[in-house]
């Protein structure tokens, strides 16, 4: 039931015309506050708890004062009197208290989105910037940047950023120990929980990457990349073919002059499997090819093994796929 319909029902109850089922629904509505999706989207857990307590305190004050009011509230029966009164007064106070609270603090409220789907999800920020979040990725960001000195977000997983320029309000992305600073650019960050490396790849513009204790790791421009080892605090900067590092955005898997070692990492992420390469010769051999992401893992492995004169098999004990060189007869 939407709020408009609920208000109609509330008026019906005050006139004494609500059925017993409708009366029970009204009494229980107060407890549904935490399930109100439009409220949840705007508030953190701590802010919701604090606001709920403010509303509850206001209800108590109003009930105490209402004993001298001319308006008489029809109570359901003695043991439910407080719940019914609280419900009605909740509707009175929710608008004023909530929206006053929201007006004061909306810029400071962070929202967090976790991509629990199997597809990339686009997030539109208030300043016109966009973030393409990969499956299992998690992003936290303010609802508004209006009264903030910087546009700061936090990332877990992999995401592609297309940021609107604003020299007065730098954009920063925090991923573990790394903090990436930009003015207006497009770049990719990979910070997977299961990997010790964080990789920042710039497609357009310029970014500065800071590490632990705000120590500058490096400056990146178009087609440059930094890979940062979170265990050793060491980093490697190089020039790369950026298409290779953002092909997760595409419906295709593109391998351009890639080694099977590099391809293994892409396939493990795409198909959520573990792949073991048992021969050193297989790891370094390079190739170029394209697969549709809709193709099954078996189809992809058959093609790769055919090209590399290799075979693959499922190792149930290791929960992995082993790829080995074919024996020469």
Could you please describe the fold and organization of this structure?
The protein has 9 helices and 18 strands. It is an alpha+beta fold and 329 residues long. The chain has 3 domains: 106 residues; 132 residues, Jelly Rolls (Sandwich); 76 residues, Phage tail protein beta-alpha-beta fold (3-Layer(bab) Sandwich). Strands 1, 2, 3, 4, 5, 6, 7, 8, 9, 10, 11, 12 and 13 form a 13-stranded mixed β-sheet that branches. A 3-stranded mixed β-sheet has the order 15-18-17. The protein has a two-stranded antiparallel ribbon with strand order 14-16. The protein is globular, with a radius of gyration of 28 Å. The termini are far apart. About 14% of the residues have low confidence.
Descriptive terms for the model:
single chain, 329 residues, alpha+beta, Jelly Rolls, Phage tail protein beta-alpha-beta fold, 3 domains, 13-stranded mixed beta sheet, three-stranded mixed beta sheet, 9 helices, 33% strand, globular
CATH topology of the largest domain: Jelly Rolls
- Report the CATH C-level class of the largest domain: Mainly Beta
One letter per element, helices H and strands E, the order comes to HHHHHEEEEEEEEEEEEEHEHEHEHEE
User: What is the CATH architecture descriptor of the largest domain?
Assistant: Sandwich
Flag low-confidence runs.
30-43, 66-82, 92-107
The rough form would be described as globular
Give the % helix.
Answer: 25-40%
Mean pLDDT: 77
Could you say how many structural domains there are in total? 3
Q: What share of the residues does DSSP label as strand, in percent?
A: 25-35%
């Amino acid at each position: 039931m939407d709020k408009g319909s609920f208000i109609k029902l509330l008026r019906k109850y005050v006139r004494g015309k609500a059925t017993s089922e409708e009366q029970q629904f009204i009494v229980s509505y107060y407890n549904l506050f935490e399930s109100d999706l439009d409220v949840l989207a705007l508030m953190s857990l701590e802010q919701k708890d604090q606001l709920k307590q403010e509303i509850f305190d206001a209800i108590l004050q109003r009930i105490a004062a209402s004993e001298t009011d001319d308006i008489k509230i029809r109570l359901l029966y003695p043991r439910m009197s407080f719940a019914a009164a609280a419900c009605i007064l909740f509707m009175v106070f929710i608008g004023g208290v909530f929206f006053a609270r929201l007006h004061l603090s909306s810029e400071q409220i962070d929202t967090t989105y976790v991509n629990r789907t199997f597809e990339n999800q686009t997030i539109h920020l208030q300043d016109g910037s966009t973030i393409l979040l990969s499956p299992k990725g998690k992003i936290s960001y303010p609802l508004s940047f209006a009264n903030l000195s910087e546009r700061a977000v936090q990332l877990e997983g992999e995401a592609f950023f297309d940021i609107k320029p604003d020299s007065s309000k730098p954009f920063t992305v925090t991923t573990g120990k790394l903090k990436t600073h930009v003015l207006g650019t497009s770049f990719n960050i990979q910070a997977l929980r299961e990997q010790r490396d964080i990789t920042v790849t710039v497609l357009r513009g310029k970014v500065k990457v800071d590490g632990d204790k705000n120590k500058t790791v490096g400056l990146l421009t178009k087609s440059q990349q930094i890979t940062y080892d979170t265990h050793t605090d060491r980093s490697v900067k190089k020039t790369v073919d950026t298409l290779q590092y953002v092909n997760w955005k595409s419906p295709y898997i593109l391998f351009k002059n890639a080694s099977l070692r590099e391809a293994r990492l892409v396939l493990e992420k795409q198909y959520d499997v573990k792949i073991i390469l048992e021969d050193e010769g297989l790891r370094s051999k390079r190739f170029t090819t394209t697969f549709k992401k809709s193709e099954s893992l078996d189809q992809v492995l058959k093609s790769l093994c055919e090209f590399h004169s290799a075979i693959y098999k499922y190792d149930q004990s290791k929960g992995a796929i082993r790829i080995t060189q074919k024996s020469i007869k």
